[in-house]
Amino acid sequence: MLQRLSSTTGLPDTVRQPRFDRTKLKPGIVHIGIGAFHRAHQAVFTQHALEADFGPWGIIAVNLRSPDPVEALAAQNGLYSITTRSETGDHSEVIGATVDWICAASDRARVLSALADPAIRVVTITVSEKAYGLDPATGGLDHTHQAVAADLGRPDAPVGVLGFLVEGLALRRAAGLAPYTVLCCDNLPSNGKVVRRLVLEMARLRDPALADWIAEKGRFPCSMVDRIVPAATHTTRHRAEKLLGAQDALAIDTEPFLQWVVEDDFVSGRPAWEAAGAIFTDNVEPYEKMKLRLLNGTHTLLAHLGILENLDYIRDVMAKPDLAAKARIHMEEVVSTLDPVPGIDLPAYIDDLLARFSNPTIDHRNLQIALDTTQKLPQRLLSPAVDMLAMGETAAATAYAVGVWIASVKKRGDCNDPRRSEVLAAAASMDATDPSASFFAIPGLFPPELAGARGWRNRVNAAILSF
Ligand code: CS2
């Protein structure tokens, strides 16, 4: 049996390795949520930034619940590989920017002491949309969210991302330290502003003076992140094993494309991520709107079309010309809701997205993208629909995409979603002539501008009835 990847593994020359001395790397970042996306995105940017401009920016990788990636990092001295895949071939790179690893569920104290450590200056986060406890109807804290409720009850024993952020900031304030910068890397619009509001709300409920201190001294830059990273499978690990000549339990496949647009507003410094290609700006909003509406909105459409057509992967959907055409139609409609994006040619961006979705070497499961659709609809499909109706447009493509979602839930008879029971109840009580009505009745899901737009709702119905 092959040995496990570790700092003593002799790797083939074809594998790109960290070009800095890992033994000299000190921690400066805590990252919360060490799923595949983080491993193929922020950790890669940090590795390349360290290569260009070495400094104390090693990552302490924290997972809130599952110990699996933490145990794997421990077994591999913090190393893992990414395989960048395209038609021109596979390229393997070992990432060594991670210097420590903690599972919060079993070692809360060590997470809190990392957050309270003056050496930590930035906390980056990828925990997915549903983990924040954001009430879509108010934009504020959802007190019924499990982790939010737990963290409000026991602020000194956090379990959720907000609880850890707030308790960590409280510890720093008590110690007379500066706060850390909180850098949200989840696909939420104005993600930094959203997290700032939620952190302040939670902090205010426990201590108004703490909230005032965070409001004054804390920084929550917005960021837009982009890279297609399918969940790893046995095939992914097998492929990595062949490239590395060693076993890598954390291996992931990803596409060549990589983008990070970050608001340059940090409390006390950051790695030279620009040396790795990150774009720093004082306004991320046009970039994130472009990405959420064109990439993610179309992804949601394609994923549910794929489910309806019994196709496994996004690339399978794109291989059907009639379905690929729907992706283009969707983007060409929604693009009219976007402001000009500095440095980006939108028609070329759309063409590039269609090519990225079609990458035949990327096995991105439709079911993975269909996960948590209720958490994704507002920013991906519903806000552009609201904008288009306000512009006097029919917003036909967004209505079609919402209809496709409803039809796919109905067909599957299941979904993996925090609002699963409500979604399945709506699917079970669909009216023959107004099939979307039970979905529009799910509290807080559709904004009033859409719930009251009869013409748009008729288009949703027509889409549902076409399947
Ligand atoms: C996808 C995203 O799973 C999903 O909902 O749309 O994860 C997408 O692959 C990334 O945002 C690409 O940057």
Mean pLDDT: 98
The CATH homologous superfamily of the largest domain: NAD(P)-binding Rossmann-like Domain
Helical content stands at 40-55%
Instruction: Report the end-to-end length measured between terminal Cα atoms.
Output: 50 Å
Q: Under CATH, the topology of the largest domain is which?
A: Rossmann fold
State the shape: globular
**What would you report as the Rg, rounded to the nearest angstrom?**
22 Å
What is the CATH architecture term of the largest domain?
A: 3-Layer(aba) Sandwich
Strand order of the largest sheet: 5-2-1-6-7
Major sheet characteristics: 5 strands, parallel
Low-confidence stretches: none
Q: How many strands appear in the DSSP assignment?
A: 11
Ligand list: D-mannonic acid
* Proportion in β-strands: 5-15%
The number of helices is: 20
Count of discrete domains: 2
CATH hierarchy, class of the largest domain: Alpha Beta
Domain Mannitol dehydrogenase N-terminal: 28-274
Domain Mannitol dehydrogenase C-terminal: 283-411
Organism: Rhizobium rhizophilum
Keywords: Oxidoreductase
Outline the fold blueprint:
Elements: E1 27-32, H1 36-40, H2 42-52, E2 58-63, H3 68-75, E3 80-86, E4 89-95, E5 98-103, H4 108-115, E6 122-125, H5 146-153, H6 161-174, E7 181-184, H7 191-206, H8 208-217, E8 223-226, H9 234-244, E9 252-254, E10 259-263, E11 279-281, H10 285-308, H11 314-318, H12 321-334, H13 346-358, H14 366-370, H15 373-390, H16 396-412, H17 420-428, H18 437-440, H19 448-451, H20 454-465
Parallel strand pairs: 1-2, 1-6, 2-5, 3-9, 6-7, 10-11
Antiparallel strand pairs: 3-4, 8-10
Helix pairs in contact: 4-6, 5-6, 6-7, 7-8, 10-12, 10-15, 10-16, 12-13, 12-16, 15-16, 16-20
This protein binds D-mannonic acid.
